[in-house]
Amino acid sequence: MSFQAYLDAVETKTGHTPRELIKLAEERGFDASTKATPILEWLKEDYGLGRGHGMAMVHVITKGPRISTKHVGTSGPHRDESDTLWLDGKATNPATTG
Predict the structure, then answer these.
(1) List of residues 6+ apart from 71 with CB closer than 8 A
(2) pTM to 2 decimals?
């Protein structure tokens, strides 16, 4: 599953785009200095997210939308189209709505 697919699944599970969840995380005081555990606990308690989907959100909350280029443009199961994740909702992603 690609990193972007994890974020799209988070949106489906929570009803919030990744950007909305980032804003909610910031309102709770989470930022780049926050360790993964408190963010994972919040996402599990409030939204029922498991570790994999939670860790995808931890990344964008603490590091932003840029990801490693390791899987960009590859043909494997973890491939992503870009090194920048789309945070504004799967319905508006130009890579999939084109």
Answers:
(1) 2, 3, 78, 79, 80
(2) 0.90
